[in-house]
Write a structure and sequence with these properties.
Elements: H1 17-30, H2 32-43, H3 48-55, H4 59-67, H5 69-87, H6 89-108, H7 113-141, H8 147-175, E1 183-184, E2 187-188, H9 189-195, H10 198-208, H11 215-220, H12 224-235, H13 241-254, E3 264-268, H14 272-286, H15 289-294, H16 296-302, H17 307-331, H18 337-359, H19 370-388, H20 391-401, H21 408-459
Helix pairs in contact: 1-7, 1-8, 2-7, 2-8, 2-10, 4-21, 5-6, 5-7, 5-21, 6-7, 6-9, 6-10, 7-8, 8-9, 8-17, 12-13, 14-20, 14-21, 16-17, 17-19, 18-19, 18-20, 18-21
Protein name: MFS transporter
Domain Major facilitator superfamily (MFS) profile: 26-464
Pfam family, one: Sugar_tr
Length: 472
């Protein structure tokens, strides 16, 4: 799938105020997939220690159960585009909603560790689908004048989903008397945490029946009259819709279907620009950001923080993530992608280095010394803030803009796959690394954050203000 061409400059191409509210509703409904993406990704944070205790597993096995969802994510992301091109964007959303619902129920009621892992893979497949279908659909139904702002709904929904999952986990833990395995509604608290996702999953499914199919998909299957009606709903009624449909058809015919072999070349298998995209994806993950969202409760408890407080700190970290994302959305087109990436890297180095320093001290009565404890807590929030206002948003902007037209789709797919693999590597390795040396683990993340600075300076070119056709 790709975005509708933005040819033409007619002033009538912006939505009228009475249409804009409808378009915002459509984009927000589609972005519920992003909310579930964030929610499902991080809700496991509240169940890690309970799963370890209930099934009596070591760090290595536990890590695989947590990280295995990412395998489903990679498969879902790789197949969502083809599924949506065959059966439509709305049907694809509905499939994802069903998978999210099934995953939530199964994860809340597992028979054993193996089927918990299976339900997580199913949820991961839904996450992968949502990560692709949401942005593509929003781009295809949005009037060109509002496409950037409406497109940002997806990222905003993801970080809100992360925050809400942590708030729900914290509330449920308090209701269970601070015990992740405490009884709630006849189940253990962690099971309820994983099961609550049924609510937004069902809502996502219901909303998918209230929004129209993508005009681009309808045109691709010959339903031109229906496409015109939807274009009128989102762009107003003073547009030449016959010309608009013809324009979309021409854009679709002009698009080149890039393939994996188009990426090959240069001295090291891939073309240099593809390696730069892979590098951006890997650095984004190798700074350890997902440790903050998958394991933060476990991390704080390992240095003596009370379980209830650890869940609250996970929630405050998620709020900081939202703040940083909003900052990035405001400044990415003003300051530029490259300066934001560099600012973020410097801030992450400082935050991670301070965490590594704080965690290097021996525990006293099972806790970090007071000064080091506060430094670790503040530094963790600093790290998440600088990540969110830079690499969290900028990498996806770069990946959407930096590749030449002829290889964009295939190159973006390879870079996104590299991101899921890097995410899996960090997620699967953290428990064992933390058992080995928590401070040393954060030194490793600090080194990667520091290396990202010369990488950006030497290899990454600014894409702000350039037309996609200028990318060579």
């Amino acid at each position: 799938m790709s975005r509708t061409a933005q040819a033409g400059s007619s002033g009538a191409r912006t939505a009228h105020p009475d249409h804009l509210g409808h378009v915002i509703f459509i984009a927000a409904a589609a972005a519920m997939g992003g909310f579930l993406f964030g929610y499902d990704s991080s809700v496991i944070n509240g169940a890690v220690e309970a799963i370890r205790d209930r099934y009596d597993v070591g760090s290595a096995v536990l890590a695989q159960v947590i990280a295995i969802a990412l395998i489903g994510c990679a498969i879902g992301a790789a197949t969502a585009g083809r599924i949506a091109d065959r059966i439509g964007r709305i049907r694809c959303m509905q499939i994802a909603a069903v998978l999210f619902t099934v995953s939530a129920i199964g994860s809340a009621l597992p028979f054993a560790l193996w089927d918990l892992a299976m339900w997580r893979v199913i949820g991961g497949f839904a996450i992968g689908m949502a990560s692709v279908i949401g942005p593509a659909y929003i781009a295809e139904v949005s009037p060109p004048a509002y496409r950037g702002r409406l497109g940002s709904f997806q990222q905003a929904a993801i970080v809100i989903g992360i925050a809400v999952s942590q708030l729900v986990n914290w509330g449920l833990l308090n209701a269970a008397g601070g015990d992740q395995r405490g009884e709630l509604m006849g189940l253990e608290a962690w099971q309820i945490m994983l099961g609550v996702m049924v609510v937004p999953a069902v809502l996502y499914g219901l909303l998918s029946f209230a929004i129209p199919e993508s005009p681009r998909f309808l045109i691709s299957v010959g339903k031109h009259e229906r496409a015109k009606k939807i274009l009128e709903e989102v762009e107003g009624n003073d547009v030449d819709f016959d010309a608009r449909v013809a324009e979309i058809e021409q854009a679709m015919h002009r698009e080149e279907k890039s393939s994996f072999k188009d990426l090959l070349g240069g001295s090291f298998f891939f073309k240099p620009i593809v390696w730069i995209g892979i590098g951006l994806s890997v650095f984004q993950q190798f700074v350890g950001i997902n440790v903050a969202f998958y394991y933060s409760s476990t991390l704080w408890q390992s240095v003596g923080v009370d379980p209830t407080d650890s869940f609250f700190y996970s929630f405050t970290t998620s709020i900081i993530n939202i703040v940083g994302t909003v900052i990035a959305m405001i400044f990415v087109d003003r300051v530029g992608r490259r300066p934001l990436a560099l600012i973020g890297s410097v801030g992450m180095v400082i935050g991670l280095a301070l965490e590594a320093w704080a965690f290097s001290f021996d525990l006293v009565d099972g806790k970090l010394p007071a000064t080091q404890g506060w430094v670790a807590l503040i530094a963790a929030h600093v790290f998440v803030l600088f990540f969110a206002l830079s690499w969290g948003v900028v990498v996806w902007v770069f990946l959407g803009e930096m590749f030449p037209n002829r290889i964009r789709a295939a190159a973006l797919g390879v870079a996104a796959s590299a991101q899921w693999i890097a995410n899996w590597a960090i997620t699967a390795s953290f428990p064992s690394l933390a058992d080995w040396n928590l401070s040393g683990t954060y030194v490793i993340y600090t080194i990667f954050a520091a290396l990202s600075i010369p990488f950006v300076l030497k290899f990454v070119k600014e894409t702000k203000g350039k037309a996609l056709e200028e990318m060579g």
